[in-house]
Amino acid sequence: MFDVGFWEILVILVVALLVVGPDRLPGLAREVGLWVRKIRGFVTNVRADIEQEFQTDELRKLLNEQNKEISQLKDMMKETEDSLRHEVEETSYLVKSIENDVKDVQEGFAEEGDFGEQATRLVKQRKAEADSSKLSDAQPAAQDTPPAKDRDEPKA
Question: What is the pTM for the complete model shown?
Answer without folding.
Answer: 0.38
